[in-house]
Amino acid sequence: SQTIHQWPATLVQPVGSPLSLECTVEGTSNPNLYWYRQAAGRGLQLLFYSVGIGQISSEVPQNLSASRPQDRQFILSSKKLLLSDSGFYLCAWSAGAGGNTIYFGEGSWLTVV
Amino acid sequence: DAKTTQPPSMDCAEGRAANLPCNHSTISGNEYVYWYRQIHSQGPQYIIHGLKNNETNEMASLIITEDRKSSTLILPHATLRDTAVYYCIVRPPDAGNMLTFGGGTRLMVKP
Questions:
Q1: Nearest chain B alpha carbon to A59
Q2: Which residues, 6 or more positions from A91, have their beta carbon under 8 angstroms from its beta carbon?
Q3: Is A105 in contact with A6 (CB distance < 8 Å)?
Q4: Looking at A2-6, A61-65, B15-19, B55-59, which range is the least confident one?
């Protein structure tokens, strides 16, 4: 069966520091991969999605970037965090060919102080 | 995605069936009904989805009315760990990365 893991689960970082959140998917090949952000009491905001290695689409211009160095690895990064980057970040995947169900990781709580 | 309407909150006794309704009167012919749930501080968990026919898996059953304008998610024997916010979503098959959560229903399972 397929599984998705992301880490770290919680992170407290000072303003201006770098960020790296990592996500891996097991049990499937060539998945579509996503990074979402969920603000408290609000819905999901799609940040990045990827249909293959090195292929990244950005939905919202911001202080963050994403990379996909391997087929089942997705990384969310920032060179200098802002206070507004605080939030709950979710990695997710769906089957690459015709798959419509999106499966989420455990989430990472980021607090920028 | 078509709009959905869910009650903001519901209570259910532990061990009893939890029936969570969802109205989606503007659903299009090719849109699927999806259910997710989110336990506090965790990522959303996929539960089940369907198009026209009723569906059942190890987690829940999904009952879709014949006109497809509403559906009900049934947790047959609710446990305390089923306490969560449940989201009903309708999506076309080519929705790709689009996933819009509404307010959902906060289900409280009580002992």
A1: B97
A2: A4, A6, A21, A23, A33, A34, A35, A36, A74, A76, A104, A105, A108
A3: yes
A4: A61-65
Would you say B78 and B109 are in contact if contact means Cβ atoms under 8 Å apart?
yes
What single string gives the DSSP state of each residue in A81-104?
Answer: --GGG-EEEEEEEE-TTT----EE
With contacts defined as CB-CB under 8 Å, which chain A residues touch B32? 100
Please report residues of B whose CB lies closer than 8 A to that of A66.
Answer: none
Instruction: Check CB contact under 8 Å for B97 and A49.
Output: yes
In the A/B pair of chains, how many CB contacts fall below 8 A? 46
| B58 contact A CB<8A | no
Residue of A nearest to B33 (CA): A101
Structure confidence at residue A98 (pLDDT): 57
CB count, 10 Å around CB of B73? 25
Tell me if B97 and A100 make a contact (CB, 8 A cut-off): no
Contacts of B94 in chain A (CB under 8 A): 100
Residue A111 neighbours by CB distance under 10 Å: 13
**Whole-number Å distance between alpha carbons of A20 and A2:** 23
What number of residues does chain B have? 111
Q: pLDDT tens for residues B57-103?
A: 999 999 999 999 999 999 999 999 999 999 999 888 777 767 777 78
